[in-house]
């Protein structure tokens, strides 16, 4: 921000080597590492956050192509990446090849960025191939070679020093262990514990450089490599998952037996959360139905009220399609909340019909029309106050809360309008109310 630009970045904090302590529910501190840094950026308004992320992504990709840079918004809970594919099998080389194919496919899909796997690139290791005949002739054992290498590379624990209740290890290190190279290891002298003599390492062994995976992770005791991808501002996790899943099914047919995949990220989290909530939905539905039957003492009125729930769901689907929001766990919670609000509108309308018909002794036609006229304003006002109250959640809630806000707002608007027509019509059908010879009484408008 400056005098000419009133919206943008206000300030930032940089942490080198390790991240700050946990300052947000969506942030988990990474392990300290010399090649790790963390920058916390504050902006003037959440409205400019998306544009800042896009600019930082473009700049980092153009200027630091070999660095693993993740730019994202602070979440409101949860962690991990939205797209995760976990491949399990036995052979690390084959797992790495499959992961490379999946990463290439994700690169082709629009909306993905920072595609990587959790094994990382291979590292070089030195295999010490000991010539047992030469080693025995020189009086060198495998343990002698191991101790000598450990002393040079990491240091050898020779003993312990106790100070009060503390035990301090005594580590013996080589003077040349700061900057080691293949040449320095080849010229290493191996000390024999039995003869007390030293011989060059190359006299009893040869060093073979090899490439290997620096990290091999497991899932349920099986070797598993996880391919992950973040989303751009326009990216949609559900849409990307729907594209990659059929491709994975086709690819798995070409894999050897024993190699499988499992979706993680948002797909796994949503499935777990939906399963936990859906387990208690039958009980909740049963309680709601029983309460409606007790309240109205009528199966027909209970049926009318419950049948209004799909009307809100229709609006929810339309809203998610228009605003291009994914249907996840919070959108599912929005459907449950929406069902309660739509049912409430139907209860208010049917309750007023009963009052008009039973207490005011009006004919069914006048009771239905009068109830609609008298309950129209309260129902519409309640709907619009709820919708307007959710607008800040949609604008500032981020990717986490937007689907829930859209679900309730659009579903409630659609459901309310349809309910005002559906309940009177359905009530007339179930109770056989005939309007053929009916004359509208203008006093109902008073």
Write down the overall mean pLDDT: 85
Number of helices: 14
Structural class: alpha+beta
CATH superfamily of the largest domain: Multidrug efflux transporter AcrB transmembrane domain
| Radius of gyration computed on alpha carbons | 34 Å
The number of domains: 4
Sketch the major β-sheet: 5 strands, antiparallel
CATH topology annotation of the largest domain: Multidrug efflux transporter AcrB transmembrane fold
- What is the CATH architecture term of the largest domain? Up-down Bundle
Uncertain ranges: none
Helix content bin: 40-55%
Total strand count, please?
A: 13
Topology:
Blueprint: E1 9-16, E2 37-43, H1 49-63, E3 83-89, H2 92-108, E4 112-117, E5 122-130, H3 132-137, H4 142-153, E6 156-163, E7 166-172, H5 182-186, E8 189-191, E9 198-200, H6 201-204, E10 205-213, E11 218-219, E12 222-231, H7 237-252, E13 260-264, H8 265-278, H9 281-296, H10 299-306, H11 309-323, H12 329-359, H13 364-396, H14 398-430
Antiparallel strand pairs: 1-2, 3-12, 3-13, 4-12, 5-10, 6-7, 8-9, 11-12
Helix pairs in contact: 9-10, 10-12, 10-14, 11-12, 11-14, 12-13, 12-14, 13-14
């Amino acid at each position: 921000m400056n005098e000419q630009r009133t919206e943008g970045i206000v300030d930032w904090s940089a942490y080198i080597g390790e991240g700050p302590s946990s300052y947000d529910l969506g942030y988990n501190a990474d392990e300290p590492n010399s090649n790790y840094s963390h920058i916390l950026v504050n902006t003037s308004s959440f409205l400019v956050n998306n544009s800042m992320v896009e600019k930082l992504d473009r700049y980092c990709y153009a200027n630091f192509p070999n660095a693993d840079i993740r730019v994202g918004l602070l979440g409101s809970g949860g962690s991990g990446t939205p797209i995760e594919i976990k491949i399990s099998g036995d052979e690390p080389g084959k797992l790495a090849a499959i992961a490379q194919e999946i990463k290439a496919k994700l690169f082709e899909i629009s909306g993905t960025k920072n595609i990587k796997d959790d094994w990382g690139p291979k590292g070089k290791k030195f295999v010490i191939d000991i010539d047992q005949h030469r080693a025995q002739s020189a009086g060198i054992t495998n343990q002698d070679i191991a101790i000598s290498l450990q002393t040079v590379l990491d240091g050898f624990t020779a003993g312990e020093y106790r100070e009060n209740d503390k035990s301090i290890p005594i580590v013996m290190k080589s003077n040349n262990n700061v900057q080691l190279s293949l040449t320095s290891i080849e010229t290493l002298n191996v000390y024999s514990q039995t003869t007390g003599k030293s011989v060059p390492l190359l006299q009893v062994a040869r060093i073979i450089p090899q490439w290997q995976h620096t990290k091999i992770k497991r899932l349920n005791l099986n070797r598993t490599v996880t391919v992950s991808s973040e989303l751009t501002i326009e990216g949609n996790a559900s849409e990307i998952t729907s594209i990659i899943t059929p491709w994975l099914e086709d690819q798995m047919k070409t894999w050897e037996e024993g190699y499988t995949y499992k979706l993680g990220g948002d797909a796994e989290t949503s499935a777990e959360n939906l399963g936990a909530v859906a387990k208690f939905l039958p009980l909740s539905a049963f309680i709601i139905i029983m309460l409606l039957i007790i309240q109205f003492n009528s199966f027909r009125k209970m049926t009318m009220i419950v049948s209004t729930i799909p009307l809100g769901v229709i609006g929810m689907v339309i809203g998610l399609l228009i605003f291009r929001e994914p249907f996840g766990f919070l959108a599912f919670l929005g459907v449950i909340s929406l069902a309660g609000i739509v049912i409430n509108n139907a209860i208010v309308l049917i309750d007023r019909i009963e009052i008009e018909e039973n207490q005011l002794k009006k004919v069914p036609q006048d009771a239905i029309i009068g109830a609609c006229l008298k309950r129209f304003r309260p129902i519409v006002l309640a709907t619009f106050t709820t919708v307007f109250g959710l607008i800040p959640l949609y604008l500032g809630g981020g990717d986490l809360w937007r689907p829930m806000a859209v679900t309730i707002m659009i579903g409630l608007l659609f459901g309310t309008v349809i309910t005002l027509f559906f309940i009177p019509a359905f009530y007339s059908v179930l109770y056989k109310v005939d309007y053929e010879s009916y004359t509208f009484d203008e006093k109902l408008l008073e």
